[in-house]
UniProtKB/TrEMBL annotation:
All residue ranges annotated as the Isopropylmalate dehydrogenase-like domain in the record: 7-353
Protein name (Swiss-Prot/TrEMBL): D-malate dehydrogenase (decarboxylating)
Keyword tRNA processing: no
PANTHER family: D-MALATE DEHYDROGENASE [DECARBOXYLATING]
UniProt similarity note: Belongs to the isocitrate and isopropylmalate dehydrogenases family.
Length: 359
């Protein structure tokens, strides 16, 4: 049979994004090379990001979305650099892609690895394993609001930042979470809100959750307020399987989860357009890490794990599993970057993962 060729748009963007995207590409290319021609990856790299902004005044080309729309997937690094205000760089590239391509489901597994010491007392990579499902198209990141409202003059500025919740938006992310839970050993969905204080949008969320849950009697459910859930992440993580939350709450909780697993550098993420009308985007959870960028210190595991999520999206679950096993084989023997207590470089870890593919 003819090889399946997947066309991937790589957008390394800024800081460690460049280092970890290079690592992920190397691992995927090694996998393809070893596939005896069964599949191949065709890459195109885009130079967008903060340096591009400084040169051109835009984070991506005017017709950037047009350039991206026919790729099979987008492999993203991280955006942001101290020379450009964060709200400009984030909205100009990452959020623009997520929202324009209706990547409404953001899947963020919290994965505990052998050989990585977690700050959690009870941490055990055989028992702890959960996924944060983030509503990725509306909520607190809908971009609704404005500044200079009310004309109160200098020193009296007023700004409004509104959250948007729609029944359709809530329902689709919840069904996605329940479908995911059905395929896991622990069939449970935890819904997170702050509906005691935010009485409109988040109460709508709670109502939709109850309605959708009725269609999944085989899946256990709970509704937890976000402050209590952050405590639960630390104190009772063995109780978690699929955690579904709004854009902002899930963003915060997934950083907490990856820190508990040992480092922000470990966490993978998929921004999915489940209808496949547009390309989905795969990226590590972490940002551009200006404090360590350019020194070969970045942990590539979040980016490589995101590549595994991309393989699943391509319909190559065996290859995804093989990649994840290679990550585990690497951490298990103590080949670790500095953030997780080791001395290995980005390149050392990447090479070890590639070597483990064929072990
Ligand atoms: P960050 O995630 O870049 O860094 C937080 C801490 O985690 C730093 O101490 C960093 O050294 C460490 N870290 C992050 N990734 C690592 C890796 N792969 N290996 C080892 N250590 C790692 O978050 P921060 O500092 O708040 O933001 C820096 C920039 O990144 C900002 O401009 C921010 O807007 C942007 N950002 C972009 C995101 C994206 O593109 N998806 C997500 C989060 C932040
Ligand atoms: Mg975040």
């Amino acid at each position: 049979t003819a090889p399946r060729t997947f066309r991937i748009a790589a957008i390394p963007a800024d800081g460690v994004g460049k280092e970890v995207v290079a690592a992920g590409r190397a691992v995927l290319d090694a996998l393809a090379e070893d596939s005896a021609g069964a599949f191949a990856f065709e890459w195109r790299e885009f130079p967008w990001g903060c340096e591009y902004y400084e040169r051109t005044g835009t984070m991506m080309d005017e017709d950037g979305l047009d350039q991206l729309k026919d790729f099979d997937a987008i492999y993203f690094g991280a955006v942001g650099w101290p020379t450009v205000p964060d709200h400009i760089s984030l909205w100009g590239l990452r959020l623009k892609i997520c929202q324009s391509f209706d990547q409404w489901a953001n899947v963020r597994p919290v994965h505990f690895l052998p050989g990585v010491v977690s700050p959690l007392r009870k941490a055990d990579d055989t028992e702890l394993d959960w996924v944060v499902v983030r509503e990725n198209s509306e909520g607190e990141y809908a971009g609704l609001g404005g500044r200079n409202l009310g004309g109160r003059g200098p020193g009296g500025e007023v700004a409004v930042q509104s959250a948007l919740f729609t029944e359709v938006g809530c329902e689709r992310i919840m069904r996605f979470a329940f479908d995911l839970a059905r395929n896991r050993a622990h069939k449970k969905v935890s819904s997170v809100t702050k509906s005691n204080a935010q009485q409109y949008g988040m109460v709508l969320w709670d109502d939709v959750f109850k309605r959708v849950a009725a269609d999944y009697p085989d899946v256990e459910t709970e509704s937890v307020l976000v402050d209590a859930m952050s405590a639960k992440f630390v104190l009772k993580p063995e109780d978690l399987s699929v955690v579904v939350a709004s854009n902002l709450n899930a963003d915060i909780l997934s950083d907490l989860g990856s820190a508990l697993a040992g480092s922000l550098g470990l966490a993978a993420s998929a921004n999915l357009n489940p209808e496949r009308r547009y390309p989905s985007m795969f990226e590590p959870v972490h940002g551009s890490a200006p404090d360590i960028a350019g020194h070969g210190l970045a942990n590539p595991i979040g980016a490589v794990g995101s590549a595994a999520l991309m393989l699943e999206h391509f319909g190559l679950p065996d290859q995804a599993a093989r990649l994840n096993k290679s990550i585990e084989a690497t951490t298990a023997v103590g080949i670790l970057t500095r953030d997780v207590g080791g001395t290995a470089s980005t390149e050392d870890v990447t090479k070890a993962i590639i070597d483990a593919l064929n072990a």
